[in-house]
Design brief:
About 0% of the residues lie in helices and about 30% in strands. It has no helices and ten strands. The strands form three sheets. Strands 3, 4, 5, 6, 7 and 8 form a six-stranded mixed beta sheet that branches. A hairpin with a 2-residue loop joins strand 3 and strand 4.
């Protein structure tokens, strides 16, 4: 059988397929091959675990985005959902289409916090007194904060 068009496969359940036969006395031979679009599977993972049910869609189709996952948060854990990724590429549900079975993985970004330095009286001294202390902190990373200094103390 010749190569099939991309995204198609033999519809073996179609009883009208005629894949072989005998050449008639007039030299003719009629074969019938019925094709169908391949069905592909999209799975979702969040935090290494399956998320929701896999979807089965036709080759070349777009996929509907599932509900955004949530990540358990304690009082100190803060992450924001960044989207679904196919490997390193962010999946665009509005334009990306399926050409193979894939697993989309939830990606999370650690929140970033602003650091403000205040003295005992509550006065903001961020950047004052020659301070080169960091002004941002990303959750889950270590941020070294130098000991403050004050002239005459």
């Amino acid at each position: 059988m010749p190569a099939l068009p991309e995204g198609y496969e033999l519809d073996s359940a179609n009883e009208d397929n005629k894949l072989s036969g005998n050449i008639a006395g007039d030299g003719s031979l009629v074969l019938k091959v019925y094709l169908k679009l391949k069905m592909l599977t999209v799975s979702f993972k969040n935090e290494g675990e399956a998320f929701g049910q896999p979807l089965t869609v036709k080759y070349g189709a777009k996929v509907s985005a599932p509900e955004n996952p949530t990540k358990e948060k304690s009082a100190t854990e803060r992450y924001e959902f960044d989207g679904w990724y196919n490997g390193d590429a962010k999946w665009d549900f509005a334009t990306d289409t399926l050409t193979e079975d894939i697993t989309l993985t939830a990606d999370w970004t650690a929140n970033q916090y602003t650091i403000t330095y205040k003295d005992k009286g509550g006065t903001d001294f961020s950047g004052a007194h020659g301070t080169s202390a960091p002004t941002k902190h990303t959750y889950g990373t270590a941020t070294a904060i130098p000991a403050p200094t004050r002239t005459g103390y």
